[in-house]
Amino acid sequence: MRRRLAAVAALGLLLGAARASPGPRVPLEFWTIALQPLLTAYVQDMIGRYERAHPGARVRWIDLQFQSLDQKLLSAIAGGVAPDVVNLNTEITVRMAQAHALVDMEAAVPAAARARYFPNIWASLRVGGRAYGIPWYVEPDVLAFNRTLFRRAGLDPAHPPATMDAFIQAAVTIKQRT
């Protein structure tokens, strides 16, 4: 028993020393969706705090446009060069999980950390009983529109767009017809 305890203590000391010693920088790639320029300062500050807390880490931030994320992420995964961390909305998280493109995060996040979130926020990132994301920020999807402009474009204001594709098509129709 004493030997085991001594071995565990020695291992702990070695691991502690290894973490504290300077070593090669560990690159981490972090992708976000259209956060620049509005949130540039916030994200850069967050990255700086992370790098100071983890001296071996070097975060490379790549901000992508919404329209290109799906294709770029799936291509990166297929090519074996997926980002280490990616900021996805709930819709994309579900789509990527169904395509088996994400890792189940359940084991990586202790129950105490999960308990800090409202249950429905955590549940929104679950697909098939697995957690495919960690909530970062939550924002409601809201659609406000001008009913008169909708009618003028030949669209039915009683049936506004329910998907991103329908929203884009409605915007194109309004632009073309008004």
Automatic annotation (TrEMBL):
Signal peptide as annotated in the record: 1-20
Pfam family, one: SBP_bac_1
Keywords: Signal
Gene3D superfamilies linked to this entry: Periplasmic binding protein-like II (3.40.190.10)
Source domain of life: Bacteria
Protein's name in the database: Extracellular solute-binding protein
Source organism: Candidatus Segetimicrobium genomatis
